[in-house]
Design brief:
Distance between the termini of chain B: 47 Å
Oligomer: heterotrimer
Radius of gyration of chain C: 30 Å
Shape of chain B: globular
Number of strands of chain C: 2
CATH superfamily of the largest domain in chain C: MetI-like
CATH class of the largest domain in chain C: Mainly Alpha
Strand content of chain B: 5-15%
Chains: A alpha/beta, B mainly alpha, C mainly alpha
Number of helices of chain C: 18
Order of helices and strands of chain B: HHHHHHEEEHHEEEEHHHHH
Order of helices and strands of chain C: HHHHHHHHEHHEHHHHHHHH
Number of strands of chain B: 7
Distance between the termini of chain C: 65 Å
Largest sheet of chain B: 3 strands, antiparallel
Strand order of the largest sheet of chain C: 1-2
Strand order of the largest sheet of chain B: 1-2-7
């Protein structure tokens, strides 16, 4: 009886009961949508536009995985998470993967029991100050008031940096990025610190972007990447290799425009053929169609295209590739071979 | 038909009695309730025990002694980023108490003023107060906190205006009396600094306060026993000020005032009231003040007009009518809702998280929870603190409430 | 003639003099102003101060509203249009009002559904609020939750229909078995209702296409709609629970009483936000592995717990205010506990508690904004999150917060005015 009451209540309240069992891939396929955790809004990385459609660099990873697994880049339910809720959401099975500029750290990978599947953006924590403050280096910030977005590794890095350099500061913890910017623009803090990518993105939205400068110091390594629950290696493989497919596609010259053509028949380059499923059985090895990578690339483009359309120099965010260039161009973006 | 006094027939106990007999029925119900209760708790705990995440991570309060790693701006006690999470939680708890105390005091002041003024004959004033009360009662306090925080950041003068210009001119600009500065990074006020002999001065001051109470007691005694009115006001003030000032002068000013001084980026020294504190404090006081105003108004209206007239007929002056007749009776009506307003303030301080005030929800329930991922432990501790505090306040206030309650024959 | 008259007798007026108009200073507006605004020096000072405050507020507010612009696609457009005239940039409201009201995920072509549900609310609520309306209209109220659920969440109509059938069947079972005892009746009702729901759930799973309108998952609810949903659902759920808790707290059975006291005092002792943290990060641990409630359902559970404790205290006040004679009257008529509560005590106690319950409801409705702290996009969450962080509207605070204030004020002020009206209506005893 207890069960039937529960069932009745479930039906009555219209609950979506989703299993958090080990086989995430089966769950996703059965459900028909991918639940993907993103931020509550960082311009360029994940942000709903005026029509409520999520856009951004992290969002593209979610869409690529959805396209690879389900063949439909729109079969994604985006779950906005805060710094506080993201790990619980992932651990409890509310989301299947988290693509929310989350830093890959030792304790998160081990103690919190998650698997980071790769790095989609190499970031570092930086400082933004008003140009008229007359500061050109972070070492001159002794005694300054610093706005920090809480719930991230930034506040730990900040504490370490100032302690190591024997400086004092006044932390102003702020819940959301938007409010931190508001405080910074009002002059309620002298310095705003977070990941440099976010700094650049938010600075691009200022009325006078040139009134603020980014200081040269990068006080931390912030490899940001998607992560999944520990213990489901098959699912981790799918997310990892979808990301790698996007990266390899750029390296191999496969783009959103030519992927259909290149994937329709085997070409000269065997690695392209393996990637796009015209040769070998790579898709079947991870439990997907042969055209999984083709779908992902067709949906969002290769890594370089994703970068350029969302945060690249042509956009309002205006980030240079820098560390995030392909290894062939002197960056760190490097995919293991598809073989 | 047997008579009523017949003892029940000794035919032994039947199962049906458990439902139908009033004597046993309550036991049956309680037993069922108890079983259901135990079953559902057991079910919850069993779920938690079998939860794969919890099984992996376990429940462990050991993280409290690990270094916290983050900095806190408002530190009532010593703290560095190397202190433990426990210490960060204690700082958070103290900060909660600070803002709750401040807000209780000012909310009472706002509430009493607005409540009395709303009954004023002056049309404009009473309508203004009505608008104030309705405005704040009908809009969520979270919105008020955020609005006031935004106002503080955008309407106070930017601290850049107080900075020493690069050419070094006009250094003391903007400091009110050379002591106060209201900036969008907070309000800087002077701070008292104590040398070693400072405690003597403080002791003298405390002794003076005790003396004032003694004086008032003596005066009342004289009034009731001999009918002689002993002047109280001026002697009290003198008693409060003179010995302390004398002590201060005699010992060579051990209690000093430290004024804020402009540093490279902001004022150094002095005491800083941060915008988050101001926003939370002000928003809670003005919001709760609106509720207290209604309580005060209801309390005053509850004292029947005959009481005022009777007091006037006895020849009491209007001030005395208020303080001796109306207020003591009104307080009896006002105090109980006032207590629950104080409790509400304490609980609403947890909204500090919206403006980054480092209260307990911000440290233990915020950054610590984030950094350690120990959600269950942190939330349990958080609830335990608020629960203890709420229960303690209501206990104390109930004692007071009983002491002023109507003593009925 | 006049002479003679004058000498013979003192002047006597023979007709009544028409009353002279009072001095101008003692009539109409002037008198009112004198008495109400300038009766004493202190009063005069207060009046002038009050006028200054009003003037100051209006001088800021009026240009802001009058000069404001409603056109533009971003804050830059606003700045261009306004040219520093001090007007507000209301264009943000013009562009983002659907997001403020419905959240950013609710499909835009379906917005008529929650709007219709909201409009129907005005049909469903009056029968409860105004006793003078004919009683049959309560049927509308009873049907409303199921219709509103179907409109807002969508999906097949089987779910709400069977939910309704379950309730009706449960009620009939209850009335049938009630003669054998209240508890048995209740038990029968619950079992029958549960069976109907179970069958309904089964049929809904088999026939998902029957009378189907497009389903919208809970997580896509947002904006002011979310505040309304949370407020209405939680208050309506918590009133019956509150009654049970209040009765339990009055009970003579130590186990029941103890549980109710501990529950009420615990919930009232902790801030709502900690309960929301529980809903957000802890509750998942205490549910069987595999069940995964939507966040909105978890939040509804916690807020309902919260408000039922407060409502229980209000009702307890109502119970305590009843004269002891009423309880004794019930006993002397030979009614059992359930009957005397249902027929004598509760109707009176609830009547006394209605204003208190309305107060709790208003407070709760305001507290639904707290869900923005746990990353739900209610009205406040929408403003703090997606709208303020969008590059087009960075820096438009006042207009958005003013809109939020207006929305909440209208609803809450309306409810509290109703509560005051009700208090006057119910004051039947001493008049």
């Amino acid at each position: 009886m207890k069960n039937s009451v529960l069932l009745g209540t479930l039906a009555f309240a219209g609950l979506a009961a989703a299993g958090a069992s080990a086989a995430t891939l089966d769950d996703v396929k059965a459900r028909g949508t991918l639940n993907c955790g993103v931020t509550t809004g960082v311009p360029g990385f994940a942000e709903p536009d005026a029509n409520g459609v999520w856009q951004g660099f992290d969002v593209a990873v979610c869409r690529a995985v959805a396209a690879a697994v389900l063949g439909d880049a729109d079969a994604v339910t985006f779950v906005p998470t805060t710094g506080k809720t993201r790990f619980t959401a992932l651990a409890s099975g509310e989301i299947d993967m988290l693509a929310r500029n989350t830093t890959w750290t030792f304790s998160r990978d081990t103690d919190l029991k998650f698997d980071f599947v790769g790095v989609n953006y190499y970031d570092g924590q930086g400082f933004m100050v008003p140009a008229d403050l007359g500061v050109s280096s972070a070492t001159e910030l002794d005694g300054a008031t610093v706005c920090i977005q809480t719930g991230t590794t930034t506040e730990l890095n900040l504490a370490d940096y100032f302690r190591v350099n024997g400086m004092s500061y006044e932390p102003v913890p702020i819940e959301t990025g938007a409010e931190a910017v508001q405080q910074y623009l009002a002059g309620a803090c002298d310095v705003y610190t977070t990941d440099r990518s976010a700094l650049a993105a938010q600075r691009a939205g200022f009325e006078n972007p040139d009134d603020s400068i980014l200081l040269p110091e990068v006080v931390s390594k912030e490899p940001l990447g998607p992560l999944v629950r520990h213990g489901d290696s098959e699912w981790a493989d799918i997310v990892r290799w979808t990301l790698n497919a996007l990266i390899s596609a750029e390296e191999l010259g496969v783009t959103q425009a030519n992927v259909e053509e290149m994937g329709s028949a085997a070409g000269d380059n065997p690695e392209v053929n393996r990637l796009l499923g015209t040769e070998g059985e790579l898709g079947a090895m991870i439990g997907l169609d042969a055209s999984w990578a083709k779908n992902a690339i067709a949906a969002v483009g290769n890594y370089g295209e994703v970068f350029d359309t969302n945060i690249g120099e042509g956009t309002a965010i205006g980030l240079a590739r820098g560390l995030n260039a392909q290894y062939t161009d002197g960056g760190l973006i490097y995919s293991p071979p598809f073989r | 038909m047997t008579t009523m006094t017949d003892p029940p027939k000794a035919e032994g106990f039947r199962i049906g009695q458990l439902i139908n007999d009033k004597r046993y029925r309550s036991y049956t119900f309680q037993f069922i309730a108890l079983v259901l209760l135990i079953l559902s708790f057991g079910w919850l705990i069993n779920n938690a025990m079998n939860n794969p995440i919890l099984q992996r991570v376990g429940i462990d309060f050991g993280f409290l002694s690990d270094p916290a790693g983050y900095d806190i701006n408002q530190q009532p006690i010593e703290y560095t980023s190397q202190s433990s999470h426990l210490r960060a939680a204690i700082i958070g708890a103290i900060n909660t108490l600070i803002v709750a105390f401040l807000a209780c005091v000012t909310a009472t002041i706002f509430g009493v003023i607005a409540g009395v003024l709303r009954l004023s004959n002056n049309w404009i004033i009473s309508k203004l107060m009505a608008v104030y009360v309705e405005m704040f009662r009908n809009i969520p306090v979270l919105i008020w906190i955020i609005i006031i925080f935004t106002v503080a950041a955008n309407t106070f003068p930017p601290i850049a205006e107080f900075r020493i210009p690069r050419d070094g001119s006009d250094a003391e600009r903007g400091l009110l009396f050379g002591m106060f500065a209201a900036t969008n990074q907070g309000v800087f006020i002077p701070r008292l600094v104590f040398e070693s002999a400072g405690w003597l001065v403080i002791g003298t001051f405390l002794a003076s306060i005790v003396g004032v109470f003694g004086l008032r007691r003596y005066a009342r005694h004289k009034l009731y026993s001999e009918g002689r009115i002993v002047p109280v006001l001026w002697p009290s003030i003198a008693l409060l000020i003179v010995p302390t000032v004398l002590m201060q002068l005699l010992l060579g000013s051990p209690v000093g005032v430290e004024n804020p001084e402009m540093g490279r980026f902001r004022f150094e020294g002095g005491f800083l009231m941060r915008p988050s504190l101001i926003a939370l404090w002000f928003a809670l006081s003005i919001y709760t003040g609106a509720f207290i105003a209604e309580n005060v108004r209801a309390g005053i209206l509850a004292v029947s007009k005959g009481q005022t007239e009777a007091a006037a007929a006895l020849g009491l002056r209007p001030g005395r009518v208020m303080s001796l007749v109306v207020l003591p009776q009104a307080l009896r009506v006002i105090i109980p809702p006032l207590i629950s307003q104080y409790l509400n303030i304490t609980k609403n301080t947890s909204l500090a998280i919206a403006v980054g005030y480092m209260d307990l929800t911000g440290t233990l329930g915020g950054i610590t929870l984030n950094q350690t991922g120990r959600a269950l432990e942190c939330v349990l501790l958080l609830m335990a603190f608020y629960l203890t505090f709420s229960l303690a306040i209501s206990a104390i206030m109930n004692v007071y409430n009983n002491s002023v309650a109507l003593k009925e024959r | 003639m006049s002479d003679a008259h004058a000498h013979s007798i003192a002047f006597v007026r023979e007709t009544e003099l028409p009353p002279a108009p009072p001095p101008t200073a003692e009539t109409g507006a002037v008198k009112w102003v004198r008495e109400n605004l300038f009766s004493s020096i202190f009063n005069t000072i207060m009046t002038i101060l009050g006028l200054l405050i009003v003037l100051y507020l209006l001088s800021g507010l009026i240009p802001w509203i009058v000069n404001g612009t409603w056109e533009g696609a971003s804050i830059r457009d606003c700045r261009e249009t306004l040219q520093g005239s001090g007007g507000g940039c209301f264009a943000v409201l013009a562009e983002r009002w659907p997001q403020l009201l419905f959240g950013f995920q609710y499909p835009d072509y379906l917005r008529w559904r929650p709007s219709l549900a909201f409009a129907l609310l005005f049909l469903a609520v009056p029968p409860v609020l105004f006793f003078k309306l004919p009683r049959w209209m309560l049927v509308i109220t009873a049907l409303y939750p199921f219709v509103a659920y179907w409109l807002i969440w969508g999906g097949t109509a089987i779910t709400p229909i069977f939910a309704l059938i379950g309730v009706i069947a449960g009620y009939f079972a209850f009335t049938r078995v009630e003669r054998q005892g209240f508890v048995l009746g209740l038990l029968a009702g619950v079992i029958v209702a549960a069976i109907m729901w179970w069958i309904g759930g089964y049929i809904a799973a088999e026939e998902p296409g029957w009378l189907r309108i497009e389903a919208v998952p809970s997580r896509e609810m947002g904006g002011f709609m979310l505040n309304m949903i949370l407020g209405i659902v939680c208050v309506s759920l918590s009133i019956p629970i509150g009654i049970v808790l209040a009765l339990g707290r009055q009970s003579r059975l130590p186990v029941v009483k103890g549980f109710c006291v501990v529950f009420i005092e615990f919930v009232r002792g902790v801030p709502l936000i900690t309960l929301l943290f529980v809903a957000n990060v802890v509750l998942a641990y205490f549910l069987p592995p595999g069940t995964n409630f939507d966040l909105i359902v978890r939040v509804i559970i916690m807020i309902t717990m919260f408000s039922s404790a407060y409502i229980a205290e209000v009702i307890r006040g109502g119970l305590a205010a009843l004269p002891k004679g009423q309880y004794e009257a019930g006993d002397s008529l030979g009614l059992d506990y359930a009957q005397s509560m249902r027929l004598i005590v509760l109707p009176q106690a609830l009547k006394i508690s209605i204003p208190g319950i309305v107060n709790v409801a208003v407070g709760l409705f305001k507290d639904t904004t707290l869900v923005s702290v746990i990353s739900m996009f209610d009205l406040v969450g929408m403003i703090r999150g997606p709208i303020l962080s969008s590059t087009a509207w960075t820096g438009v605070y006042w207009e958005l917060w003013a809109a939020a204030c207006v929305l909440f004020f209208v609803v809450c002020y309306g409810i509290s005015q109703y509560s005051q009206w009700l208090e006057r209506q119910l004051r039947t005893d001493h008049r």
